[in-house]
Amino acid sequence: xxxxxxxxxxxxxxxxxxxxxxxxxxxxxxxxxxxxxxxxxxxxxxxxxxxxxxxxxxxxxxxxxxxxxxxxxxxxxxxxxxxxxxxxxxxxxxxxxxxxxxxxxxxxxxxxxxxxxxxxxxxxxxxxxxxxxxxxxxxxxxxxxxxxxxx
Length: 151
What we know:
By secondary structure, the chain is mainly alpha-helical. It has helices at about 5-30, 70-95, 115-150; strands at about 35-40, 45-50, 55-60.
């Protein structure tokens, strides 16, 4: 026996209201959210808001005074990218309960929002940067080990 249209409509309206309330909660949570990240060399600290906009930059411990422009720029970019990726992950986590599709990027049916298009490139860029830094660190450790073996 099929469910009467009146009952299906009432259920759909109830689900829509629950979804609206969940979106409101997520928006309130994110509105006040900021992320603070320090570069790996601890020379730069950045703060970004929930939209990924840069709110503040702090140069720590005077270390920046002895850094070359390229080195300082790299530290700043590293910190900003990591903070933006952290914010993107927080946004995804906040909206994940609304998702009908399991996985990293949620998809809300009928929303017209393509989460992969919005956050995918940012998360991929950060993942690539982290992998490149890890490989560079591995190479440096290899060189240090080889120098020690030659002695």
